[in-house]
Amino acid sequence: MDISSTGLRVLRQIAESGSFTAAATRLGYTQSAVSRQAASLERGAGTALFERRSDGVRLTPAGLTLLRHARTILDCLTAAERDLTGAVSRTELVRLGLFLSAGAALLPPSLARLAATDPQITVTTTEGTTPSLVRALRAGSIDLAVLTTRPPHRPLDGESPRLHVETVADTELVVAVPSTGEFAGRTAVHVDELVDAPWIATPASNAEPLLGVWPGLPGRPDIVHCARDWLTKLQLVAGGFGVTTVPSRLSPVLPPGVSLLHVEGAPPEIRRVLVARLPGRPTPAITAVTRAITSTA
């Protein structure tokens, strides 16, 4: 096969982002350049590597096989570049991904524990939805991911081999409301009262879920504000501009003016927090970071 390192980087980015357009944006290429690299990869491999679907692009079984080798090749090239430039690292790096509400409650205590027990380990972090972080794990762009699932807690994706997963904790989904006004002084709200509520949500796409609206809400939700940043969403709630859903474990980091209400008249929504990685024997650094996360949850 005649395959370039650029082609392998394009393969990895398409696997992670789930589309040619998003891969081009992240790599700083034009979409036509990414398409040409993808076509060149398929010619070199002699088989189809990409499956175009209505919800984006996924790798075929042959594409996933090449991706496994691409991770190793690209890691070796990075190590060779370090050796040639003399940039010898004195620390062990772990690239950690977290779902959008995990950072505020989990990350600071986990990093503090890690600094005390394993100061030689450096952790870099990135945020994303669970589907995007699963793709990033498969692509080799992150080493470890903190993810969330809802019952019945099916496998995180349909790819093989399955990711190695450890349960961190279960947490209840609740509704964040202004501390003053209609819901002042309450600890619970009936789901029917939320039908006409103004919602603050994270934008959804074909491949990503809508976050911030109560699941199974009767009727079409009235979404008045869209924001990905949790601080923005909660500050909007504090200002009386709407309501949003949050995991109950965020209660210690709520800004003033925000209260959490349990939802009655609907089945409880339990979210499971997980730590996931690629299968196989983990490095000591990945094991240490996993231990820090699970022990501080």
Please explain how this structure is put together.
The chain has 297 residues and is an alpha/beta fold. The chain has eight helices and twelve strands. The strands form three sheets. Strands 3, 4, 5, 6, 7, 10, 11 and 12 form an eight-stranded mixed sheet that branches. It has a two-stranded antiparallel sheet with strand order 1-2. Strand 3 (92-98), helix 5 and strand 4 (121-127) form a beta-alpha-beta unit. The longest helix is centred in the first third of the chain and has 25 residues, at 61-85. The radius of gyration is 21 Å and the shape is globular. The mean pLDDT is 89.
Please describe the topology of this protein.
Blueprint: H1 5-17, H2 20-27, H3 31-45, E1 50-53, E2 56-59, H4 61-85, E3 92-98, H5 102-117, E4 121-127, H6 130-139, E5 144-149, E6 164-178, E7 188-190, E8 198-201, E9 222-226, H7 230-238, E10 244-247, E11 258-264, E12 270-277, H8 284-296
Parallel strand pairs: 3-4, 3-5, 7-11, 8-9
Antiparallel strand pairs: 1-2, 5-12, 6-10, 6-11, 6-12
Report the C-alpha radius of gyration, rounded: 21 Å
Secondary-structure element order, N to C = HHHEEHEHEHEEEEEHEEEH
Category from helices, strands and their pairing = alpha/beta
- Identify low-pLDDT runs: none
The main β sheet shows up as: 8 strands, mixed
Give the beta-strand count.
Answer: 12
Strand residue percentage: 15-25%
The end-to-end span amounts to 47 Å
Classify the helix fraction into a percent range. Answer: 25-40%
Number of helices: 8
